[in-house]
# Entry
Amino acid sequence: MQTRLIECVPNFSEGRDRAVIDAITAAITSVENIKLLDVDPGEATNRTVVTFVGEPEAVTEAAFQGIKKAAELIDMRNHHGAHPRMGATDVCPLIPISGVTLEEAAEMSRQLARRVSDELGIPTYCYEAAAFTPERKNLAVCRAGEYEALPEKMNHEGKAPDFGDRPFDEAAARTGATAIGARDFLIAVNFNLNSTSTRRANAIAFDVREKGRPQREGGKPNGKPMKDENGKTIMIPGTLKGTKAIGWFIDEYGIAQVSMNITDMSATPLHVAFDEVSRAAAARGVRVTGTEIVGLVPKRALIDAGRHFLHKQQRSTGLPESEIIRMAVRSMGLDELKPFDPEEKVVEYMVAASDGEKAKKLVDMTCTEFADTTASEAPAPGGGSISAYMGALAAALGTMVANLSSHKAGWDDRWREFSDAADGGRELQDRLIHLVDEDTEAFNRIMAVFAMPKGTDAEKAARAEAMEAATLYATQVPLKTMEAAYETFDLIRRMAEQGNPASVSDAGVGALAAEAAVQGAGLNVRINAAGLKDRAEADRLTGRAAQIIAEAEKQRAEILAIVNKIIDKA
# Structure
């Protein structure tokens, strides 16, 4: 199950007073489950860029707390710096990393902008994907004239903030205005060339960047740039949407590079940029030898790249994500200039590493550790987690047969069929792996209720309500395990019937594991449902469980009949 993760990069109008900067970051990190990745103050700009990540609810709350603290400590009437600015918190973008769409992030930005205006009295503009008008997608339009222009812009139609519009008053004079928005993750990437020529690197950059290059008279490189009727230079667009690029020479490495910012990953994924820069370079007699990622990168950019290069080789993509990322690293030469460690370059892995203080997940244990933990005197993990893991193994076996079938000799024209099947198996395996720990979490929620006070009538009522909710959750989780484990039968049957005959016994074991997962989780549904006060809901859940069990028994029997028939003919 994909973690919902958002990055936030607020820019605060203070880069010199460390006490103020520390107070703002302390307010941000006071919100639970926020990971502070970077604090970058600039003395000349008198501005600090803060980067933090977390789940959406935590991130929007942390952003609010940071904006609130900045409003308390920064007086814009006294601010001067080299960077454009209009408020104590100048800009605050939300950037979806995983499990959240840009549209969802945009709506969160609008809600945050409204809250900042309503509760803190700070005028707010919505920009980029959160903009209410096309013009305000451009931050420069929102910030036109900077802080000094706010007295004229506020309470003025067409220029006023989206939230908190009013005549310019003392409160607005102190805080200024804030632009809050949503944008895609910006990937900063350099493509290494087997050349030292900045001119050639620039030519390649102009070929591909969205802005392109000026159209010149006579089509000659040294011709005068052509102008339109309004006197603006006519540009020949490049081939890559949502990119900015230039060429330069790097003394440290002794090579020229095409340096690119990918501002819209949906329009131009990382691997598409790599392929296109490689094509444009080859057309000019130059070769891309490797790639340098500057800063962090979302996991999905590397996963998409790895899948792309596997598909170009007609290979299955139903592989562990570590192998897919390894393919991306090798294919784009991410480690040409220095070692590329995904644990230090991928946003999601950085966040997971900072969670080291948390209890180790069951699925992160070795097989021996998991077995020993299960065998201990602790009541969890128990049958529910084991059932989920058996379901994950069933999905893994089906996926394995699909992967083996995708490169079976003589079956080259079927690689995509089996790759798609393996992708489905990986998705099921990931869902069931997540349920291994979720089942133990369900048990822990019930145990937490026993620690609640029960002296007064109100406390007893609250305790009873919490117990009903926890028991319902503990019943729903194994039912989810049953449903996910049952879905593996479709993959396993297809692999038994159509997959590599040499691996048909693995499909048979998968069918047995899937039924065991369904039966085992079904026992948990029944025993937990018995504790529900809502008997109608209990009957509905146990009825659904009984239905899945009956179908699973049928599926297992039919698949084993197929498997045994093939084995007998061998």
Observations:
- Residues 359-569 form a domain with the Four Helix Bundle (Hemerythrin (Met), subunit A) fold (CATH 1.20.120.680).
